What does this fold into?
Amino acid sequence: MFLSVFEMFKVGIGPSSSHTMGPMVAAGRFLDLMRASPFAFAGLRASLHGSLAFTGVGHATDRATILGLAGFVPDTYDREKADAALDEIKARKSIRPAGLPELAFDPASDLIFDFDTPLEGHANGMMLMATDAQGDVILRETYYSIGGGFVMTEAELAAGKDTDDGAPVPFPFKTAAQMLEMAAASGRSIAAMKRANEISRGGAEGLKTGTQRLWQVMNDCIDRGLSTEGTLPGGLMVKRRAKGIHDKLMAERGMNLTPPHTINDWMSVYAMAVNEENAAGGQVVTAPTNGAAGVLPATLRYYLDHVPGASEAHVEDFLLTAAAIGGLVKYNASISGAEAGCQAEVGSAAAMAAAGLCAVMGGTPEQVENAAEIALEHHLGMTCDPVKGLVQVPCIERNGLGAIKAVSAASLSLRGDGTHLVPLDACIETMRQTGEDMAEKYKETSLGGLAVNVPNC
It folds into this structure.
């Protein structure tokens, strides 16, 4: 099993990796399918199912699908160009993707929110269709957005999880137990093994420049969030708070009366800055998802800005270690809130961040595994109940608390020798089982929890 650091961490747009980025990616894949087809196409249709239907408007799934069909992709997304394209599509009631003829598409009638027909493969399902001049469907594909911006067709999902058909990697661990066995046998750290795997596929220079860009985008996102005021879109009238909190923290710096627990506010404000940017549709990095995008950057920023002896030379090790843990969670359970609740998103993010922090602070592979387990264990059972379908409440603050848990988990693990009762593999399996047992209304449908108990929603 090989999942690249650049698959786990992807540059994209808010507010959701599964509900915004995924549908945009699926639409792009469908355009490629059309371009390779011999048929003469005249129109497009799309239907959203399950969680994509229930929370699609709040997550901008409709907008992302339309723009994806127009040729936009998350990595190079330009908000101004997207707004102009969307206005043109609504006015002309057609789409003009590159390499294809102008295609009839009226967003009001050709994009359907199907609340009554869930698709069997995954909670985040969508069908894309191309029609001929008579309006008959002549090409159809079903896509599932399985979390973190990952997209699979119905056939790919049915084929199973392990679809990696690339060249063998030096350290092909599929479980935490295998990871620790390989670390012991090789004498390498988790980051070193992950680095060897990445280099075997993409080369050393690509790894270096790629991870540098990931951290740059993450850090820039924090800085934008810390300097931007206003009200978040969507109708809840949630005010951005990161700038105000950061301004107060900066004013208090150096004051002897500042209590020690203020460090928690620094961790929280870094995470909140990212998730306010995400909620506003800004550029973020999936870590492992958009809804949980603030935990890992906040933990890494905390390390760099507040831990004595910290160095940016360790950023790559942090990201590689975190990606290794994230890959285990995704392969053996889920990183999708629509599939397993927020334990799969913020819980996974906290485990990844805890592992990364433990590693760069000198932790052994056993301590790193312990840190990840502690962080994930104490998110088990966490539901995903976004108010009004927006990635704002409880998501923004939850990322701050996830970062605090990550730092605490890393610190606890470093106080021990790596031995502990519950293996990470057992915790991941428990998370998977808990997600299966969790009622659907608590899995990113906005049909339960805070989403139905907060007034004026």
Remarks:
- The chain has a mean pLDDT of 96.
- The radius of gyration is 22 Å.
- Strands lie at 11-13, 43-50, 94-95, 103-104, 111-114, 124-131, 137-147, 150-153, 283-285.
- The longest strand covers residues 137-147.
